[in-house]
């Protein structure tokens, strides 16, 4: 696991925590969807950069 994939996965997990927090605070749904898309993109990019796929 290299540094960039680690950073992307950690940022994605951080954003997932933010999603859960925003849902508990009853924030607008559009903001939660936008944050969900960003978290999914970070997690997918981090997982795809792992060396196990080569």
Task: Describe the overall structure.
The chain has 54 residues and is mainly alpha-helical. It has one domain. It has helices spanning 3-24, 29-48. Helix 1 runs antiparallel to helix 2 (29-48). The longest helix is centred in the N-terminal third of the chain and has 22 residues, at 3-24. The chain is elongated, with a radius of gyration of 13 Å. The two termini are 12 Å apart. The model has no long low-confidence stretch (mean pLDDT 92).
Topology:
Blueprint: H1 3-24, H2 29-48
Helix pairs in contact: 1-2
Ends apart, CA distance between termini: 12 Å
Major β-sheet profile: none
What letter string, H or E per element, gives the SSE order? HH
Radius of gyration: 13 Å
- SSE class: mainly alpha
| Residue share in β-strands | under 5%
- Tell me, rounded to a whole number, the average pLDDT: 92
| pLDDT < 50 runs, ≥5 residues | none
Shape from CA axes?
elongated
Number of helices: 2
Overall structural domain count: 1
What is the number of beta strands? 0
| Helix proportion range | over 70%
């Amino acid at each position: 696991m290299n540094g960039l994939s680690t950073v992307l996965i950690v940022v994605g997990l951080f954003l997932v925590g933010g999603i859960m927090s925003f849902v508990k605070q009853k924030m607008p749904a559009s903001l939660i969807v936008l944050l969900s898309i960003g978290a999914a993109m970070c997690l997918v990019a981090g997982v795809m950069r792992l060396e196990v796929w080569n």
